Amino acid sequence: DAGVIQSPRHEVTEMGQEVTLRCKPISGHNSLFWYRQTMMRGLELLIYFNNNVPIDDSGMPEDRFSAKMPNASFSTLKIQPSEPRDSAVYFCASSLRGGVAYGYTFGSGTRLTVV
Amino acid sequence: GQQVMQIPQYQHVQEGEDFTTYCNSSTTLSNIQWYKQRPGGHPVFLIQLVKSGEVKKQKRLTFQFGEAKKNSSLHITATQTTDVGTYFCAGLQRETSGSRLTFGEGTQLTVNP
Asked: Distances in Å between the alpha carbon of A96 and those of A2, A5, A27, A51, B101?
């Protein structure tokens, strides 16, 4: 299994530009999570999906952030317009049975820099 | 909402010394998970504890879950340079439509050879 695949690995963009992060979860995993990691705030849950349905997006910072999961094998996190304070590492994770017993499998992350 | 706190934030040890990180939750947890993140890497699942008072071992790592299921600890015996990284605890919160992890701030471990 290739694990959770995220793209791109690194993204540098100018303030005001649209940014789209992509994630392919592990086949068969029915839950998908987007986390953001910064030195100041640690690992923050932005949104999670169960069976492709968004369950809780209360962690999404503001309307500039949106996430979709059109099918079981693909999800996107979009920031429009981007701001320097969005600079962080964004992780996608997937799990089987809600993460019980087997935990979450994280992707390698996308390091976003907004200048 | 659920809050999970970890101490210490940083720990520097000499190779061969022991290391312990502590995790406390503001609410009773259904279970707790531990992850390790190497520098520049991503969190990797280590273990899950479910039962009150549970103790699990993985080689030199010992994990404990408190009797009240509100705290947990990770102890590493005789640290090695390969143990370097940040160790996170995470409380699993079950909801009617799914479940999610709330991560602690992590303890960053450095090991001097």
From this structure: 16, 16, 10, 11, 13
CA A101, CA A110: separation in Å to the nearest integer? 26
In chain B, which residues have their Cβ closer than 8 Å to the Cβ of A50? 97-98
Q: What is the pLDDT of residues B51-78, one digit of tens each?
A: 999 999 999 999 999 999 999 999 999 9
- For residue B93, what are its two tokens? 């919160």
Q: Are B84 and B69 in contact (CB under 8 A)?
A: no
Q: Is a pLDDT exceeding 90 seen at residue A80? A: yes
> Which of B77, B74, B91 shows the shortest CA–CA distance to B22?
B74
Query: How many CA atoms lie less than 13 Å away from B61 in the CB half-sphere?
Result: 15
Rounded Cα distance, B12 and B21, in Å: 12
Q: Does A25 touch chain B (CB under 8 A)?
A: no
* Residue type for position B56: K
Instruction: Please give the pLDDT value at position B92.
Output: 82
To the nearest whole number, what is the mean pLDDT of chain A? 93
CA-based angle B11:B16:B18, to the nearest 5?
50
CB contact under 8 A, B98 and A43: no
Integer-rounded Cα Rg, in Å, for chain A is 13
DSSP 8-state secondary structure symbol assigned to residue B79: -
Measured between CA atoms, how close is B12 to chain A, in angstroms? 18
CA dist B72 and B30 (Å) reads 12
